[in-house]
């Protein structure tokens, strides 16, 4: 099969490698596609602890496809089932996943892309945010996750303030339900505008969905006393400093919404499948760019550079 290999920093090439075989409790999936995650960008560029070459298919974790082999001891899944999976080597034509980390896709999703991991992640973030009707929710950073969270929070009866750099992102937020949008250019102007919109109280819920120091600083400033700061951005490029004095004084809750419990991860994935299949959530406008496997490097660079109108890239096979 063909699999992408990160040979060196910013050097991705397709290799011919053996098709993986499922072991006990595993299934093999003939992949239809895999989403490109922003968390891939820094490993792609190389980090001090990186070693090369990487594993074939490595970094790909947003996959969907069709089961084509079933290992011993697997119940409830069969060859031909169309599925989304939580696995880790899906920048390839085939990947293997634990059966308990696979969910069947209903007929309503036939022929439609379904990068299950980020969709499930959005639902898990939303659960940790504990959004209630009547609250004001600020979302700092409108990409794929931020847009989905705009829709979920709006549908829950909250008023959403979306904050992002690009006008195209702010327009996307409006399409997904945001009541107010603020360009993310001036730290104090943003704080002032949020104070104006909330009568000086701040927001009961703030979701930081960027993964950088300034957005985290900004998000902390926007939380109301007794509110909740939800960290959805993936902070992988070094330590962070926080204004603990301000956090203490406000008495805020801080939720790190990166779930590692497999059962929780799968709960979010199942919720996402139900929401998209029922029509309650339409993520397809967010899949703005598609690439073949041999153009994975381009997809990662677009994910980093965000050309106009970019939200999410998919690799399709």
From TrEMBL:
SUPFAM superfamilies: GroES-like (SSF50129), NAD(P)-binding Rossmann-fold domains (SSF51735). It holds the Pfam family ADH_N. InterPro entries: ADH-like_C, ADH-like_N, ADH_Zn_CS, ER, GroES-like_sf, NAD(P)-bd_dom_sf, Zn_alcohol_dh. The lineage of its organism: Bacteria, Pseudomonadati, Pseudomonadota, Alphaproteobacteria, Sphingomonadales. SMART domains: PKS_ER. Belongs to the zinc-containing alcohol dehydrogenase family. This is L-iditol 2-dehydrogenase. Its cofactor is Zn(2+). The keyword Oxidoreductase applies. Signal peptide: none annotated. Gene3D superfamilies: Medium-chain alcohol dehydrogenases, catalytic domain, NAD(P)-binding Rossmann-like Domain. Residues 7-315 form the Enoyl reductase (ER) domain. Keywords: Metal-binding, Oxidoreductase, Zinc. One of its GO terms (molecular function) is oxidoreductase activity, acting on the CH-OH group of donors, NAD or NADP as acceptor.
């Amino acid at each position: 099969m063909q699999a992408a290999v990160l040979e060196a920093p910013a050097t991705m090439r397709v290799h011919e490698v053996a098709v993986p075989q499922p072991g006990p409790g595993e299934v093999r999936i003939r992949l239809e596609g895999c989403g490109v995650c922003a968390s891939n960008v820094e490993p792609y560029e190389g980090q001090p602890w990186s070693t090369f070459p990487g594993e074939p298919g490595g970094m790909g974790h947003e996959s969907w496809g069709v089961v084509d082999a079933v290992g011993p001891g697997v119940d409830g899944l069969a060859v031909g089932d169309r599925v989304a999976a939580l696995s880790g080597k899906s920048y390839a034509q085939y990947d293997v996943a634990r059966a308990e980390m696979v969910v069947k896709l209903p007929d309503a999703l036939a022929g439609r892309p379904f990068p299950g991991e980020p969709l499930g992640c959005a639902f898990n973030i939303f659960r940790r945010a504990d959004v209630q009707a009547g609250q004001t929710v600020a979302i700092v950073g409108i990409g794929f996750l931020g847009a989905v969270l705009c829709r979920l929070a709006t549908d829950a009866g909250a008023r959403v303030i979306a904050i992002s750099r690009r006008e195209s992102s702010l327009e996307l937020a409006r399409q997904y339900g945001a009541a107010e949008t603020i360009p993310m250019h001036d730290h104090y102007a943003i704080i002032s505008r949020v104070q104006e919109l909330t009568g000086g109280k701040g927001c009961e819920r703030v979701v930081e969905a960027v993964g950088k120091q300034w957005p985290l600083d900004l998000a902390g400033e926007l939380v109301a006393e007794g509110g909740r700061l939800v960290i959805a951005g993936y902070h992988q490029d070094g330590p962070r400093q926080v204004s603990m004095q301000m956090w203490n004084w406000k008495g805020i809750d801080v939720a790190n919404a990166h779930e590692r419990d497999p059962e929780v991860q799968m709960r979010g994935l199942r919720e996402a499948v139900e929401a998209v299949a029922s029509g309650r959530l339409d993520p397809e406008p967010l899949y703005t760019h598609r690439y073949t496997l041999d153009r994975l490097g381009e997809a990662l660079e677009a994910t980093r550079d965000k050309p106009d109108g970019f939200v999410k890239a998919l690799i399709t096979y």
